[in-house]
Request: fold
Amino acid sequence: PPYHRATPYLYSHDDVAALLGAARRLHPPLAAATYATLFALLAVTGMRVGEAIALDRADLLLDEGLLTITGAKFGKARQLRLHPTTVDALGSYLGSRAALSPSPGVPALFVQRTGSRVTYRTVRERFGGLVTLVGLRARSERCRPTIHGLRHSFAVDTLIRWYREGADVGARLAQLSTWLGHTDPKWTYWYLSACPELLALAAQRLEGFCEEQR
Reply:
């Protein structure tokens, strides 16, 4: 009872585009390449931040379009099949990284100017700076733009797309849960809240069902 979760901050596609545009203007150039690619990957996969920064170069198979997450919560590894545009973006990043940091001192996928792995603290600070730069504001005391909101936004966008496609959302929820790395689908439901559009689509589906029953 004394604990209240923060309200998820859901980013629009325009919000994400603005954040990535600002990230590409960061200095030095390696920071721009690293953070623009990292934040884009979080937006299109719904990965946890800790999972993304723990990725090693060997975890990415560009030719097969596969990303293996081994540093997942609860030690549960999984593989993500990447969209071709995501594969192209990661390939482009690797080319930029090779030119700007030819001899990184760690096997990490995402590296800093020093050649070391990016840290959670630095990622949060960079993201917070971009949020301020593009003018995103808190919607309430408990609804503030955080990097974790990218994960919420991915989950909600996925459900909205399934509803619009007429898919059996209840049956496919387990797929989303597995993709997000949850140990049980019940943990996925938290990501499906606080979105009027999603609730409206669900209500339309329920109204249709009631009409059929009548």
Remarks:
- DSSP finds eight helices and three strands in the chain.
- The two ends are 40 Å apart (CA to CA).
- Helices lie at 13-23, 29-45, 49-53, 84-100, 120-134, 149-165, 169-180, 196-213.
